[in-house]
Amino acid sequence: MNYSKVTEADIAELRKIVPEDRFFYPTTKHYDHDQFNGKKSAPDVAVQPISNDEVSAVMKYANEHHIPVAVRGNATGLMGANISVEHGIAIDMIKMNKVLEYDPGSLTLTVQAGLRIRDIEEYLQGEPFIYVPSPAMKWAAIGGNLSTNAGGMKAVKYGTTREHVRGLTAILADGTQINCSHKTVKNSSGYDIKDLIIGSEGTLAVVTEVVLRLIPRPRYEKTILLSFPDIQRAIQAVPKVFAAGLTPTSVEYFSQEVVEKWEEYADQEFPVKNGSGYLMVSFDGNDDKMVDGELADLVNVAKENEVTNTLIMKAGDPVAQEVWDARSQFETAVQETTTAMDEADVVVPINKIPLVLKEVAVVSEKEQIRLPNFGHAGDGNLHIYICQDDYSDAEFGEKTDRVLKALYKVAKESDGEMSGEHGIGYARKDYFEDFYGTDYVKLMSRVKLAFDPNLILNPNKIFPVYTSDDAPELVEE
C-alpha cells in the first residue's frame, strides 16, 4: 500500500484544524515508541485534539489525502499498536480527558477517551459506585483499554472492559461521527457496532467518548495471600477454588523469582515468605460474614495443595496496599532487570495453565533465556516476559521468535488465544494468520474494508489485510 507523504501544504491545512499549542511538527521522540520501546517509528506530525469536531476534521482530511493515521493515549501499550509504522499523522488523545457526565441514576459515567484509569477512580472516590476494570497500569487512558479490551485483575468475577461499556462515540475513517448504544443495559437492535470497535486496536475508528457502566461499591473486600512450596501446586489449586463454589473477585499468581525482582526494584521486603509459588485471591460483597466464609473455604482448598503460609488483609490496610502496589509494579520490576524485554500474554482455560507453565520452563531451558511470568490465574491470562539480558539484538530476535512460536503452539492446542488483554498490534501481526487461519483473516479483512476502505487507520496492525480473495495487501515497511 502506497500512502501519501505529509507535505508542507498538508501541514498548513492541518494547522487550520488544530492550533499551534496542540500541534507538533516535527514530532519529538515521545511519539516514536510505546512502553516496551521495541519498534520505533515516528509520525510526521502529531496533533492533540480537544473535541469530536477536531478529530473528525483531521480524519476527513487524512482520508481524502490518503495519509495514514495512528491514535495514541498514554503510550502504555506493549505490542506497538499505537506506533506510527507508516508515519503520517498521530492523533494524541491526551487532551480529551474530561468527565462529561456522572449519571448515578442510570449507573453510568460518560468520559472522553483520553481520561486515565486512575483519574476515573479518583473521580468516584466517596461515591457509592465504582468502575470495575482494573488494569495494573492505572495511568493508561480509557480509550487504550477499549482498544485492546483490557481486563485487569478483577476480570474473573466482573469481566473485561467490553462488559463495562454501555456506549461510545467514534469517528470513522472518513470523518463521520457515530454514536453506538447509549445508557441502556440491553440492546437487540441489529449489529452491535460498539462491541466490534472495542478490541479493534484503533483499526476501525477513533473512539472519542465512552459511556462506562458503574456498579454499586462493595462494602467489604478482603485479600488473602497464599504461599505454596512451588508454582505448580499454587496453580493446580485454582480450578478447585471454583469447584468449591467460590466466586473470587480476582485470582493472581506469581513466583518467588518475580517477588525477588520486585524487592530489588522497590527496596522493600514482601510481606509473605516461606514458599516458591503464590496466589493472591480477593473476595468482595455486602455481607462481611459471607466474605469471611469464602475466605475460610478457600484456606481449606489451599490446604489440599500444601499451602505453607496465609495472610488475610482488609481493603485499605497498609499491608494490603503494599501487596497490591507490588503486584501492579511486577512488570516494571522485571523490565528493570534486563536490557530489553518482550512479552506473550496468552490466555487459556484455567485448567490448562499448568501445561503452559511447563512449556515455559522447557523453552526457557532450551533457549537459555529468562522467562519470568505472572498473571491472572482466575481467567487463564498469563504474562510471560522474554528478557534479552546479555544477548545481542539479533540473537534476542531469533530467540524471541522461537519462544513465541512455542507458546502460541501450546496455547492453540489448549483451546486458548494469542492475547488476553495486550492485543496483537504491530509486534504480533506476523503470527496472527498462522494461529487463526486464512479464512478467518479474510473475514476480518472484509470488516476492516467496510470501516476503512482506504486502509488509513492504524495500518500494518493485527493482521495482513486481504483486499481480494487472492492475496493480501501487504503494507511496505
Essential attributes:
477 residues; alpha+beta; 7-stranded antiparallel sheet; 5-stranded antiparallel sheet
SSE blueprint and pairings:
Elements: H1 8-15, E1 23-24, E2 45-47, H2 52-65, E3 69-72, E4 89-92, E5 99-103, E6 108-112, H3 117-123, E7 129-130, H4 142-148, H5 155-158, E8 165-171, E9 177-180, H6 193-197, E10 206-213, E11 215-216, E12 220-228, H7 231-236, H8 238-243, E13 250-255, H9 256-266, E14 277-285, H10 288-303, E15 309-314, H11 318-335, E16 341-344, H12 353-367, E17 373-376, E18 381-387, H13 393-413, H14 429-436, H15 438-451, E19 465-466, E20 472-473
Parallel strand pairs: 2-4, 3-4
Antiparallel strand pairs: 1-2, 5-6, 6-10, 7-11, 8-9, 8-10, 12-14, 12-15, 13-14, 13-17, 16-18, 17-18, 19-20
Helix pairs in contact: 9-11, 12-13, 14-15
Tell me what you see in this structure.
With 477 residues, the chain is α+β, with helices and mostly antiparallel strands. The protein has a seven-stranded antiparallel beta sheet, with helices on both faces. It has a five-stranded antiparallel beta sheet with strand order 5-6-10-8-9. Strands 1-2-4-3 form a four-stranded mixed beta sheet, with helices on one face. The mean pLDDT is 94.
